[in-house]
Amino acid sequence: MSVWNPENVTDVAESIGIASLNREVVEHLSRDVEYRISEVLTEALKFMRHAKRTTLTTQDVSQALRLLDVEPLYGYDSTRPLRFGEASIGPGQPLFYVEDEEVDFEKLINAPLPKVPREISFTAHWLAVEGVQPSIPQNPISTQSNAELATRGPGANSTLAALSGNDNQGVKPPVKHVLSKELQLYFDRVAPAIMDETNEDYRTAAFASLKTDTGIHQLVPYFVQFVANKVTHNLKSTFILLQSMQLVAALLENPSLYMAPYVPSIVPSVLTCLIGKNLGSPSDMADDVHFALRDFSASLLSSIARRYGPTSSTLKPRIARSCLSNLLDSNKPVGTHYGAVLGLTFIAGAAGVRSLLVPNLKAYDAHLQRILFDNSTGLRRPEAEFVVRALMRALEVLEQDAVAGMQNGHPEGQALRERLVEAIGEVMGAAVFESGRQGLANAVLEKDLAV
Amino acid sequence: MAQPLPPSRTGSVGPPSAGGMGAPPASTPGGQGPNSQQNLNQIVLEYLNKKGYNRTEAMLRKESHNLDPNGQPIITRVGDSGGKKWSPAFKLVKHWIENGLDIYKPELVRLEWPLFVHAFLTCVSDCYYDEAQNFFKEFRGEFEEERSQELQVLAKIHVPEHVQTNELASVYRREKYAVALSPMAWAMLVEFLEARDRDGGDVIFATLTEHIRVVTFNRATTARGLQKLMEEKESENKRGVMWGGEGIPSHKPGSANTDPNASSALNKLSLAPMPMEADLMEDVRADLSHDDSMHPPAPGQSTLVDQFEKTIKQEPQDDAAPSRDAIPFPPSTARDVAMEVQKVRENRDRFKIEGRTGGVGPGVSVTMFTFHNTFDSVNCIEFSGDNALVAIGTAESYIRVWSLDNRALTSPQDPPGFQASSSRRLIGHSGPVYGISFSPSAALPEPATNGHTTSAGASETQPRYMLSCSADSTIRLWSLDTWTNLVVYRSHNSPVWDVRFCPHGHYFVSSSADRTARLWSTPQIAPLRLFVGHDADVETIAWHPNGAYVFTGSGVGDKTVRVWSVTRGEQVRIFTGHTGNITAIACAPNGHVVASADDKGEIMLWDLRTGEKTKTLKGHGRGGIWSLDWSVESSVLVSGGADKTVRVWDVQPNKEMQAKANGENGTSAKTDGATTGGGGAVSKTGKAKGPVVSPDQISCFQTKKSPVYKVRFTQMNLVMAGGAYLELA
């Protein structure tokens, strides 16, 4: 009848030596056990509620037992969930028990101490400003489910709801972004002019205007969008890509434009032009035209990082990270590697080269050797030379940064070569050695000493 | 319904069948067998016939009809069928209520719950175990929505001992449950029960008289007319409308007087602010005029002195103020003067929240403080009145205090060279800490002197003490100057759920699982008053802003909000109506309205003067509204809860509702009806999605996975909210 199985009562009675128990008594007892258990649970729920939790813990139960003047059960803690094992004592008669692992005392003592949990800390953010929930990462993204939170009624403020994105009536923003006729015309003229391959004068005039015009701030988002569009759809044309980059450069150069809010949308396009997989048509590939594009993008990126890096703490690390991951991906073509090396050099500077590039050179060496000396891919050799040159340039940055004449008695000749090879791999080691510049070699090796 | 029931174990009437029905006839010794019984009848009949006692014979024949062939009595009365009688009897009255007149339905429906409880409890007490369980299972669904927590408690009751020991059951058995009926409905009910006497009417009637107190009063004369009742019923639910005085502590609506014969007039409360000491007032005025001369007010601003005079003159016409003699306080100090001056300045300079203006709710700003890496061990969060400190009470028995502005928390007891950090750990309790309260304080503005930086250190109006309460049934007083424990208050004998400092300091109240709330003063280690009366845990507690009254809210089994007079130590108001555990209470700064919230997601507003419920605010999800607070102008209520939202509510009484209640001209009522009809349609479509949100909600702000433990309006009307981020779930 009751949820509590009367057989359990019989079992317990047998275990303490009461062999035969009247059926009535057993039933009565099992009803009583059930009542006591739920009594404990009711009390435990109270403790859960006052701890403002939604999960019941073993701690709550032992508190409840204490409150009810029952000796608490020892040996259960809340840090890990109890695991229940199941054993069968007959067909359709499962028996559940708490799994109790045997712990080797020796092992327990010698086990390393668990990690110290992180300190409790707090952060503050605006949940609402004058009735509007700002869309910042700390607040949940307003989704469809929010719609039902909005209310209609005498007290409801529909404007507030709309501003919070909580209105489900599909209200359009009351203020439209209005572009004047002149600006529209300006955009319609300038955009094609820049992409005009045939008329050089047009292009220069357009860029000149973009660089100096003071009244085109409203158009910036359109140009940014334009660039993003062109770059994604014209990966085969180095000309268009180059022009797009020029356009970005022109906008950045304009002193009257405030570009900081658009940087996050510009960077992906520039990065594409820097480390894209296949830039330009196959004929361009042969001409190495795309290296020029990569060079330009790299310098553009470095100027962006210089100007906006200080205001956005994540900008530089993000770019550096994507460059590095592309460099270490040996499936990517040489062009990508070239761009990645350039990007790293420009973005991260000497410190970055030392900490990010040099430690990885040895690993990269294997890949470089394969491209350089594998005859079956003879055609890629000159391309690889570009990478070597770029890496050399990166290492030169190190040289400039290093304090001259730090040590005496540096190794010479073959010893130096061996150490270089050991530090930065066969190809680059040889290249540095052959350059014959002691300062460069020292700068490269300095890292070893520093470490 | 009237068909005879098969005989079974009968309770009050009829002997238990010792021989059993399966016993073979004529085998029982002593001539008690059915056959011999029939033979005996036959013999008697023959004898009567022979003697010519015709009438006696007829009577015997008639009466022996009620025996079945086996000689067992045929039960025609439901009331005689033992444990089985409850189900048909309850069904009978339920059916009648549901098919009865619509105007009485909302009243009569309220009878079902107490009848159900008592039917079940009586059934268990009479040892009809299986019948009781069947009865419970059959009808519990009816009450699941409103009474789920009580049902959980009742479900576990199996044997008579449980009825006696269980708190909820014994409360129901001991006290009478009050239900209000209009005289007509009551008369109809009695008439019906008497007519259907044999079908279980007498069973119900007995229960009614024994355990339920039916209060008859004429609704037509009250503001809550029947018409209104029906409208509310349609918009709310089919469970009818709870009358203000319904429930176990049977009392007049709002009133704390449990004497049924008491007049329904409520005694007056002193709701005006506590008057200021004369000396203090002089000092404050002098300080303010000095301030005015130093910083002349900006154009359009009133001087601080004027502002001060205005606040003092605000003496309400009909509210008495509590006297300072009745509630003595220590003499005021320079610190009190500084705090009062700051209050006046804030009164002038703050961002005013005027309530609904032009049909649009005000926009409120909320700063959220989210605690990380807590592993759900934070039990409570509390901000200090000067907005400089935040404290958390943890399940690991310690309290941790941070300064919100990253200022180092120094102590004169620090060893030299000690690098004080911006947080302190207070260790002393031996059980989870459930409540924290800072002593009153005020935020002093930075002195705007050029170039001069304020000396690193605390301002003179910072909070100096903090109280905490814990499952170890103690309350501790901590010094915030030395960060040490000063006093341990022991008197409660169960976990202490909540503790609150008086708005003027010096006194504090605590509430506990021992069903009492206690009033203390900080210098004394024994309580000054015991507030006894709740039938369940006192879950939460709040002060009236003038310090003369205390509000307590309790859990399942009671679910009332009670108002206690500090001076006399007795209850002055009882508010009934919550359907869940009361989790938070807050009184408006103007002293007239108190808001209480429960863990079913409802907030109710009560008018202290009339003792009536003015509003029910719905919208929060289940799981508890942990905190409530009012804007300084008492125009807006803000709440935060386990559903990870902070909500802002309009508390002004609905004009439409008022218009309806006043029974204005028909046209306006008609238009109102139309609009409510529209609203009903909207809520109907919304119902499919989630909980109904009442139209009084101004806005709702969701957090990311952080249940909101505390919301607080600063003196400048900025909302501070605190919560713990939960990675899981």
TrEMBL record, chain A:
Domain TATA box binding protein associated factor (TAF) histone-like fold stretches: 3-66
Pfam families from the UniProt entry: TAF, TAF6_C
UniProt-annotated location(s): Nucleus
Gene Ontology biological process: chromatin organization; RNA polymerase II preinitiation complex assembly
GO cellular component: SAGA complex; SLIK (SAGA-like) complex; transcription factor TFIID complex
Gene3D superfamilies in alphabetical order: Histone, subunit A, TAF6, C-terminal HEAT repeat domain
Main location: nucleus
InterPro entries: ARM-type_fold, Histone-fold, TAF6, TAF6_C, TAF6_C_sf, TAF_TATA-bd_Histone-like_dom
Biased composition (Polar residues): 137-148, 156-169
Keyword annotations: Nucleus, Transcription, Transcription regulation
Positions of region (Disordered): 137-170
ATP-binding in keyword set: no
GO MF term (any one): protein heterodimerization activity
Membership in a protein family: Belongs to the TAF6 family.
Name of this chain's protein: TBP-associated factor 6
Organism: Oleoguttula mirabilis
